[in-house]
Design a protein that fits this description.
3 domains; single chain; elongated; 9-stranded antiparallel beta sheet; 476 residues; 5-stranded mixed beta sheet; alpha+beta
């Protein structure tokens, strides 16, 4: 991460900050939040930062969060040792529908003894979106905080939907919102919703195990060589979803190899996690065999660079052929690429209500040269910039593209598990409901009209990337 510190406020900004501190001393205000200091060591502290910003973003005119000032309005100074990038990264990862233009500055202001101390100031504009700004809490659940006076309230899903449907432009009054919801006749609208879940309709039925005294997979691989298929070590056994015979060939003729019932094996939580991990590896191995780049650690796959020009992929979309740019670069001085971007997807298996599913989440992966990944901290803002331009219908379109890629245009994705198991449906799980949001409904025939076109072109990418220079320090 860059060592660049937080930008210093100008003289006029510092005067404005002093006025804000004076206003806050006059009594509690919903649009001024004082914090003793900024500490971001724990997940709880990072979630608290995101909540404070979301609260201000949901006010009619935005608000201010000031660190280094006690809740009584006494200036005590901040000892935060980190950079602006750290704050921006946390907000990028934990905020949904965050307003653009959140300004992070620091200023030197006098304390009670007239000594100048450091204060950190987040100027938060009002969110321009129809839905309230929400944050990812420490429990992993998104929450939508609003101010009712100086008290924090969290919107229920019902209230949030009403706010979305009404496109409210005034401060949110939860009691009034609830009354409006209860008084309104529900919209009768049959909706079919696609998920990003692909069901494994032929899950593993047997688990192959072989006893071993190897303490780590590295020791096992050094002894037997790299395995030709995914396996794991667990409870003194080599475990695989392939056949007992395949595992015996790898472990050696003297190995004690057996076959167990998968249903019995996954009754143990640890055993279930082993099976999920093996299914993940089988999926990634499948993508690897199809020629995609694989990030094994983050469980994602992405298109390879081919030469020094962007890569376009032609595919059969909903009713016609379409071309998508799946690998490209943003040019720097003299046309030399600053970095490359690759269309990708996260692949992960889950066990839900007694069934195995594959979750597929489209994403963008960024590399320095088409091969070597950009550091996580540097790539987050790039990813947010690109993904934020993709509406729900674009995400749906991207999902269908990946379904076709991984199945090779077939009805199934077949993994080479024992006894012909490992079949994954290439069409997503859907659910239906009799009530929906009319404005959100879209027909497939309408979807294809604008989805086959590219997102804003490289000129837009370059413009936005110039604005992100501060968080791309060190990129080629």
């Amino acid at each position: 991460m860059s060592d660049r510190r937080i930008a210093l406020a100008s003289e006029s900004e510092t005067r404005k900050l002093k006025e804000i501190i004076d206003l806050g001393r006059g009594g509690e205000r919903p649009d001024i939040e004082f914090k003793q200091d900024l500490v971001l060591d724990s997940k709880k502290q990072r979630a608290e930062l995101a909540k404070d910003v979301a609260l201000q973003a949901n006010l009619p005119n935005g608000g201010d969060v000031v660190f280094g000032v006690s809740d009584k309005g006494i200036v005590v100074g901040s000892t935060y040792p980190g950079s602006e990038e750290t704050i921006a990264s946390i907000l990028t990862n934990r905020l949904y529908y965050a307003p653009p233009g959140i300004r992070i500055t620091e200023a030197m202001v006098p304390n009670e003894q007239s000594a100048l101390v450091r204060v950190i100031w987040l100027k938060v504009p009002r969110t321009p979106f129809a839905v309230p700004c929400s944050y990812l809490d420490v429990d992993g659940i998104p929450k939508m905080p609003i101010r009712v006076g100086t008290v924090t309230k969290y919107l229920t899903p019902l209230e949030a939907v009403e706010h979305y449907r009404g496109r409210l432009g005034q401060p949110i009054h939860p009691e009034e919102v609830s009354r409006n919801v209860l008084a309104r006749n529900p919209v009768v609208l049959k909706e079919t919703i696609e998920t990003n879940l692909l069901e494994i309709t032929r899950p593993p039925t047997t688990i192959a195990t072989s006893k071993t005294d190897a303490t780590t997979e590295a020791v096992l691989f050094e002894r037997n060589g790299a395995p030709p298929f995914p396996l794991r070590l667990w409870n003194g056994n080599v475990v695989s979803l392939r056949s007992k015979e395949e595992l015996a060939r790898y472990c050696g003729p003297d190995s004690e190899t057996a076959s167990e019932s998968a249903d019995e094996f996954i009754k143990d939580l640890g055993g279930r996690r082993v099976v999920l991990g093996l299914l993940n590896l089988e999926l990634l191995s499948r993508a690897d065999s199809l020629g995609f780049m694989v990030d094994w650690e983050k469980q994602r796959v992405f298109f390879r660079r081919r030469g020094d020009v962007p890569v376009k992929h032609s595919w059969q979309s909903f009713s016609r052929r379409a071309n998508r740019t799946v690998v490209g670069f943003v040019p720097g001085p003299e046309g030399i690429p600053r970095y490359w971007y690759h269309f990708g997807a996260y692949l992960k298996t889950k066990y839900i209500a007694g069934h195995f599913f594959v979750t597929l989440s489209p994403t963008w992966v960024f590399t320095k040269d088409g091969t070597n990944l950009i550091d996580r901290e540097r790539s987050q803002s790039l990813s947010a910039s690109k993904l934020n331009r993709e509406r729900n219908d674009r995400v749906l379109y991207n999902l269908h593209l990946w379904y076709q890629l991984l199945s090779e245009n077939k009805e199934f994705i077949d993994l080479p598990l024992a006894h012909g198991q490992g079949r994954v449906e290439a069409l997503p799980v859907t659910c239906s409901m009799d009530r929906g949001i009319e404005d959100d409904s879209i027909q497939t025939s309408e979807l294809e009209l604008d989805m086959d076109s590219e997102l804003p072109g490289e000129e837009q990418d370059s413009k936005e990337d110039d604005e992100l220079d501060d968080v791309q320090d060190g990129l080629p």
